[in-house]
Amino acid sequence: MYEERDSPGMSAVDLVREHALGKARSLVARAGDRPVLGVDTAVVLGGLIYGKPESEAAAAEMLARLGGETHEVVSGLCLLCRGWEVVEHESTRVSVRALNPSDISAYLALTEWQGRAGGYAIQGAGAALVERIDGDYLNVVGLPVALLVRLLAERFPGLYGFGAAEKPLQMT
Questions:
Q1: Is residue 38 included in any domain, yes or no?
Q2: Residue 124 Ramachandran class (φ > 0 left, ψ -120 to 50 alpha, else beta)
Q3: 4, 38, 83, 110: least buried by Cβ within 10 Å?
């Protein structure tokens, strides 16, 4: 099992890419010939990286800082099979509405913040905290699906129903 350890001074992009690669590599031996996917997500505001809060107080602090601001959700994605690996990333901008202490307390009571980068889950009640998103909504959920579909279509054209296998041009 891969254990996330953040190296000081790394950019958010480098950090999530490193974690996605580590997660995928930790599973590849059990996968046989099947592709393995590793993903990691971070929230970035003002150059600070917000991962998963370790406590309710840490989640409250994150939400207070995100309130009224636009941050980036950055996800690293690693797709690998025996003999090859590809690591990419996706970024989505999220604007959080202004939050008062009551908003934050009510959200924290739902416990959705646990295990969530930035302390919120947009796919749940956390959607009420968000004013606007620019980019891939599913990236904010934690899986950059548009990026994954593109990579699957490139690596396995037609096999997973994404893209089509190359067909020779026929002359009539």
A1: yes
A2: beta
A3: 83
CA distance 98 to 59: 16
- Say whether pTM exceeds 0.85: yes
Q: What are phi and psi of 148, to 5 degrees?
A: -60, -45
Residue range 141-152, pLDDT digits in tens = 999 999 999 898
pLDDT digits (tens, 9 = 90+) for 79-110: 998 888 999 999 999 999 999 999 999 999 99
Q: Which of 14, 40, 103, 134 is catalytic?
A: 40
In a domain, 163, yes or no: no
Residue 70, domain CATH: 3.90.950.10
Residue 136 annotated to the active site: no
Contact 53, 112 (CB under 8 A): no
